[in-house]
Amino acid sequence: MTFDKEFLGEIVVFLVSDNEKLISKYQNLQKSNFQFIVCQELPNLEKSSKLPQINSESLIFAKKIQVEIDGKMEEKLVYLTHRDKPELEYNWTEVATSFADNYFNFESENGFWRWGQVVPEDGSYLCRDCGFIGDFEKGEIFPICDVCLDGDPGGPIPLSEGYWELV
Ligand SMILES: [Zn+2]
Description:
Layout: H1 5-8, E1 10-16, H2 20-26, E2 35-39, E3 58-69, E4 72-84, H3 92-103, E5 123-127, E6 133-136, E7 164-166
Parallel strand pairs: 1-2
Antiparallel strand pairs: 1-3, 3-4, 5-6, 5-7
The structure holds zinc ion.
Zinc ion (ZN) binds next to loops.
């Protein structure tokens, strides 16, 4: 596959919240394959196409990349995906670990792609568990299946399992 290191960047997960319980659960965490930042304001994010509406309480998965602007290298945060109103009951650092593992893994699981992986080519992808078909573009992030919730931390399968298949 042809995604280079600059394209992939580094994963930064923002927990944007003023919920005391959420904040105290996730403050001051150090993780190896991503940064986890607790903040109260939405960070400044970019996206190649339109940035979706993001709730003021949300968990945002972004990548930090270096870009050259007027001969100088600058850091940019690029939106990947997000979840509105992250529930207190789930362990979001485990979710973020799975996300980063999947994001940096370019191999499908026997043809099935996982939540958080980078879509390798434009096409229609079938959810193996419910038959829903979504159209995704190369470079997007494979989403949670809205119908059966595959890829959701509260869904039927572990986040390490693939479920989107190119049709
Ligand atoms: Zn599904």
